[in-house]
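Margin note from the TA: students keep mixing up input and output lines. Inputs are the sequences; the output is the structure of the whole complex. Example:
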Amino acid sequence: MSLIELKNVSKSYLTEAGEVRALQGIDLSIDSGDMIILSGKSGCGKTTLLNLIGGLDQPSSGEIRIGDKNLCTLSEKERTLFRRREVGTIFQSFNLIPMLTVEENIALPRWLDGFSQEEARPKVESLLQQVELTHRRNHRAHELSGGEQQRVAIARALINSPKVILADEPTGNLDSQTGLQVLSVMTDLNRKQGQTIIIATHSREADALANRIIKLKDGKILR
Amino acid sequence: MITKVYSLFILRHYLQSWRQSLLTVLGLALGISVFVSIHLTVGASLRSFKNTVQAVSGKAEWQLVQNGREIDEKLFPVIKTHPVVQAAAPVVEFQASLYRWPGQMIWIMGVDFFSEAGIRRYSDSLSSLKGEEFLPLLTTPRSIALTRIFAARYGIKEGDVLTILVNGRPKKLTVVSLMEAEGPAQALEGHFGLMDIAQAQDVFGKVGVLDRIDLLLREEGVEKNQIQELKKIIPQGVRLLQPADREKGTERMIRSYQLNLTALSFIAVLVSMYLIYNTASLSVVRRRKELGILRSLGMLPWQVLLLVLFEAAGYGLIGGLIGISGGTLLAGFLLDTVSRTITNLYVLVGVRELPFSFFEAGVMIFLSIIISMVSAYFPARQAARLEPREVIYQRPGWIGPGRIKNRKNLYRGLGLLGLAGLLTGLPAWNNWPVGGFSATLALTLGFSFLLPDFVRGGINRILSLGFQGKKDLLSAWLGVNYVNRYLSRMAVAMAALMIAIAMLISVSLMIRSFRQAVDTWISQSVSGDLFVGPVFPSNQVFSQFLDPQVIGEIEKVKGISDIYYYRGVITELKGFPVRLWSGDLAVIQRHGGLAFTRGKSEEIFQKTLTGEEILVSEVLANQLGLKPGARLSLMTAQGSHSFSVAGVFYDYRTEGGAVWMDRHLFLKYWKDPRINGVRVYLKDPARIHQVREAIYKKMAGRVSLVIISNKELRDQILNIFDQTFQITYVLEAIAILVAFLGILHSSSISVLFREKELGILKALGALPGQIRRMILMETALMGLFSFLWGGIAGTLLSLILIFVINKQSFGWTIPFHWSWLIYLQTLGIIVLGSILSGWIPAGMAVRKSTQEMIREE
């Protein structure tokens, strides 16, 4: 059985200009351990699709299943807990909390889940090593380079051992060299740990790393 | 581990925005300190009053008193030997002025030490009847025991002579003993003296009479309802009361005074609540993205709610701690004013120290935390409802479309104004103007909701003046535009300032109208060229009498056309103390009469001069629903008697109401010819100084009299009036200060929010002076619009204060008195304060480097 199943998912937004159909009739299944690239031009619906899978938004119609959970039937609280425990999200603009240190930013979802500082520490240590930021642990976000900030965001996404990592243009704010480094971290995660990863990007360099590329245009999957 | 998240976010946010945090804490601390200071000062006076009552009553459960006069001492042995009586102690008391320290009082109690055991306990040296130090009070002629506190305060030692004034005559007392502050010696913070009863009767001119008899009844007697048996032997007019009941009315009036001041002090708290609301909502707007990230990482909505509430609770905790310290300090300054006002209005209180209790401090801190959390609730709820997806993808500082909400605010505002109108029609509940206070709150909130629309309308009008593009006015034009654009962020701070202004204007208008009413009333109703008596006409007047020999000598002074002899007693009516004045009303009628609410003055006076009819003050008439022709039962020295009300007159002197009757009625029912003082009418008012000198000369060296002219009396009354309201200005000033902190806070935040825009302006060549002028223009506009809206709100509020709250609380009719000066003064303060509040944010914007301001994230 697939890890992620989307059946006839559509999403529309009401704006002052009228209704905008961001996604239309999306059918998609993603297996555990997949590394998926969502590609397409700006405004094609990549971010909307990621938001739906990540429980940040709800579809106008259709059904989304992740594991044994139907996201469409989850309450607000259950969706929040789903985001906390079962997905890890990486944003283009990193979205780190500026006033927290690297270590604290990574530990944050763990603390939210009720773990004490001591209980969270081994996992934080291991992730700091994995993203090679042990020496920066006490630095704040603005003291880091873009690549470093994105590696912190990756570590934060992994802290609660999620079923799936969702990355929305993770290299969009980085130079190409740093972007490649970030993608390499994610490839390693997928290959060595079998982590399911979905990356929304229009960077062509990422295509080679994926085992599946899904192209979107005007809210639909191109077959 | 959510606590870790909370502590990290809250503490770091405090540190990161320390300026804003400091302003918020300071604002709240000021609000709390005002509240605390009123609680402490009035509370201390109330406690002093209750302690005094309790201390001098001792264990006595009952007291025998006669309304408005003393009891014949022959009653004492009859009472003492009654089977139901376990212990009885006769008391003579006197409130005397200190000869060497004008204006200072001592309360002296004369007791029979052989009857005291079982009723009162004195310090160890006086507790035993066989004690050596006790005997001198009996054996030394005209001797007194003072408290150690009193003696230390005035540098008096054992063996010294203390001179007091009794009915204007100096009396010398030898200090034979000093008491510790125990038992009755705790009364009036030590301004207490103890004498042997026989000596006291002699010194105070009360030979053969007692002021009261304190009683302790046998338990079985009370159970078997033998009180009725006791009542049978009590002469007509003498009443058996419980001490606490006697003072309930006074206590109620002090509590009412406390309530009004507390309501006024709550304005500063209300303004600081707006400040916290402002801080919390701006903090939520500013940290939308951060909160969105937390939500996207799995923080639950209620956890976000708590995060914002806990942050506010932190302000409450620190603000409360500082507020308590500040309040105690402020209370130290206000204590004298408050206790003097209570003494002037109700009863003598002597407060020197503020009671501090850790429990009360804890309650205040708890209140401060609750106030902060309540203020932050709506922003917290807004934060909890943030949709993480929306927030994450929005630019920082984004605020949602407000048009629909504004319309909602318009409806809410209009609805609240309508509600305020309805609430003013509610009758008082237990003399408590619930409707009036609620209407004040509804009106204030209503005006707050309507403020943004008012400001928007005003700004559009300013913009339509067409100064766009005029280079000299560029800064002003930008400033006006910014206020328009960032109105939603500035509106709360403006509303806070608007409330403070509205309250300042309304209270000032009310005080001015009241003062005018008092002034007019003095001219109309207080006739007489000279007022002569042993003390200044005040609460003390009732216990001091003019010697008949002195009166005879005054009558012989040349140049006098008429003399009005007056006598006042305090009686009780439905649990409230009522001042009863008697005198030859024909004299009053001849010299201007009184201002009556209705009816012909001549007819009213005629009824009082011939029949058993009395006059009641407007306050009393309102309290009891009395109209001319109604009947009123008064407790006379002969027992309860019903009188007919001939007329209702305006009177602004006494809060509890007053009854006037002609001297013939007083003599009939009190059988007491003594008088407290006289009003002297001159043949030629221009000879006032000569007549006064003539009286002084006659009395020189024998009697110390207070002789004041009508003008001096008017000045004194208005002086006491001004003193009474002095405290309100202090409270108002603090509320305004808190509101300015709000403006400073909002303006600073607004500079931070649009740092990039300001940076771009600087990059485009805007000079520091232009940036500074622009921000000062913004704060000046905030002040100006708050003033305009607050002025309208304040005028309406003053009508509620005068015609609803005052009428229901006190029952006075106060004609509304308009004054432009109040508005002009307030405008000056507000515009100046607003510009000063803009100085710091303007400096922040000017000092920061342009490069840093326009740096991309």
